[in-house]
Amino acid sequence: MANIIIGGVEGGATHTTVVLIDSDGNILSKARGPGTNHFLLGMKECRRRIAELVDDAKKEAELSEDIPLTAIGLSLSGCEQEETNQELVRGFLEVYPSLSERYAIGSDTEGSVACLSNKGGITCIAGTGSNTILINSDGSKAQCGGWGHILGDAGSAYGIALEAIKIYFDDNDDFRKSPYPTNVVWNTIKEHFDVTSHWNLLPHFYTHFKKDHIAALCKKLSVCANEGDELSKLIFRNAGKDLGRCISAVIAKASNDLCDRDGGFLVLCVGSVWLSWDLLREGFIQWMDEHTTIKQLSLVRLTTTMAVGAAFMAADRLHIPLPRDYKQNYQEFYRYIRKL
Predict the structure, then answer these.
(1) What share of the chain is helix, strand, coil (3-state, %, to 5)?
(2) Is the pTM of this model over 0.85?
(3) What is the distance between the alpha carbons of residues 32 and 321, in angstroms, rounded to a whole number?
(4) Cβ–Cβ < 8 Å for 184, 222
(5) 3-state secondary structure 127-144
(6) Is the dihedral of CA 126, 127, 132, 133 positive or negative?
(7) 3 state DSSP class of 120
(8) Element (H, E) at 58
(9) Along the chain (340 residues), what's the average pLDDT of each consecutive run of 10 residues?
(10) Which string of DSSP letters, residue by residue, matches 142-160?
């Protein structure tokens, strides 16, 4: 047991975190680096970045880079398909044989669910992109979203930024008039992208596309909303509805034991968009009240890194004993209770 070291890797489109955990459940080291979504980077670069971060964590823990870890849990954005997941793992074993003896791999949402329980749960990620996943206690899954910036990033920072830009374009074209003045949003867009005309925005979407840069507009829009701009506030209310829609979609497929927990359904909320909960709340509650029969659910956020959940996922799948206290990993920030 003393020589068992498990790595956990949490990787999104923007950043990646690695932790190393010993057989007593202690975190030995952490490392942080750039995004590792293989659909955006390619598998070769994804592996290189992860291997470099794991080696950094080994150095911090004073472990030899030449001795493989017992296991690594990879909880990565873009890892929803088993075939491509195993292709990614095979590459690690072939190109980086000293990194780890074994691997467990899943989506970023799977690792986050593992932070809450090994009996399943719900995670709603709203960061640069978005994805919501349910894992039942029998291992069955349901997913809503997670299809990327073209097919589905509802409620994400990218989705919020895109809606703001699209509202301006539609209003400027007289195609669909905005319900509120667009001047504050448009000035914020111009400042963020350093442009003077909507024509100058086109290369950012069609020539030099950078999803994380577009998504970064969301933070500036949240400032506008908090300062009272009505259009910005509406965009965040709509994002709250979208996140409520995603969560209720997977809850409809949840097993009864997930409903019977104290506080109802436990939903782990991950990503920077959730930091604007005060702006999302009205739309979220409206969706729940008007479109669902859900009686109670608790929204919680992590008090640790999702990389810890990735390590737990590896331990569970590979049958490696690893002590843990789940309640130390999260904190409730809102409880929805349906009014009778």
Answers:
(1) 50, 20, 30
(2) no
(3) 26
(4) no
(5) CCCEEEEEECCCCCEEEE
(6) negative
(7) coil
(8) helix 43-60
(9) 85 90 94 91 94 97 95 89 91 96 89 88 91 90 90 94 98 97 98 96 94 96 98 98 97 89 89 96 97 95 92 95 90 92
(10) EEEE-SHHHHB-TTSHHHH
The torsion region of residue 235 among left (phi > 0), alpha (psi -120 to 50) and beta comes to alpha
Give the pLDDT confidence score for residue 261 in this predicted structure.
Answer: 81
Q: How many helices (H) and strands (E) does the chain have?
A: 14, 11
Q: Give the H or E element holding residue 298.
A: strand 296-302
User: CA 223, CA 235: separation in Å to the nearest integer?
Assistant: 12
Residue for token pair 């009996």: 119
Evaluate whether 273 touches 155 at the Cβ level (below 8 Å): yes
SS3 212: helix
Residue appearing with tokens 């870890």? 69
Q: Residue 178: CB partners within 8 Å, gap ≥ 6?
A: 167, 168, 170, 171, 231
Q: 22 - beta bridge partners?
A: 5
Q: Which helix (H) or strand (E) holds 76?
A: strand 71-76
Which residues 6+ apart lie within 8 Å of 168 measured at CB? Answer: 178, 182, 185, 186, 189, 198
- Which pLDDT score, from 0 to 100, does residue 2 have? 52
Cβ atoms 132, 123 nearer than 8 A: yes
The residue type at 177: K
